[in-house]
Amino acid sequence: MAKILIVDDSKTSRRFLRNMLEKAGHEIIDEAVNGREGVDKYKELHPDIVTMDITMPVLDGIDAVGEIMDYDKEAKVIMVTAAGQKNNMVEALKKGASDFIQKPFESDVILEVVQKVLEE
């Protein structure tokens, strides 16, 4: 199972992801509330996977995934997006994001995406 860093400014989203991923056997090694904190914690903790919200204060998810990929080309970042953010998703994928999941969350979809990214 994977060591996962959750980066999202929404406490509710972080709690949902944590509960669902831990139930599936993954280890949540930390959480971050903005992109800057997410990049710093990535460099410190080297998680197997990062879930990264797009819209956050300080540093948004698109710029954060770019910084993480500049630091570690092998990083696996799954973007978390609200419906209607197609342009942002395309930009995040261009910067190196592995995949994306959409809010509202569906547990089976999230677990499938995490498993797929782990196997890549």
Secondary structure layout:
Blueprint: E1 3-7, H1 11-23, E2 27-32, H2 35-45, E3 49-53, H3 61-71, E4 77-82, H4 86-94, E5 99-103, H5 107-119
Question: Could you describe the 3D structure shown?
Answer:
The chain has 120 residues and is α/β, with parallel strands linked by helices. It has helices spanning 11-23, 35-45, 61-71, 86-94, 107-119; strands at residues 3-7, 27-32, 49-53, 77-82, 99-103. Helix 2 (35-45) packs parallel to helix 3 (61-71). The protein is globular. The model has no long low-confidence stretch (mean pLDDT 92). It holds the Pfam family Response_reg.
Structural class: alpha/beta
Biggest pleated sheet: 5 strands, parallel
The overall average pLDDT, rounded, is 92
User: Helix segment count?
Assistant: 5
Tell me, what's the shape? globular
| Number of strand segments | 5
Report the portion of residues in β strands.
15-25%
Order of helices and strands: EHEHEHEHEH
Spatially, the strands of the biggest sheet line up as 2-1-3-4-5
Assign a percent range to the helix content.
Answer: 40-55%
Radius of gyration: 12 Å
Low-confidence stretches: none
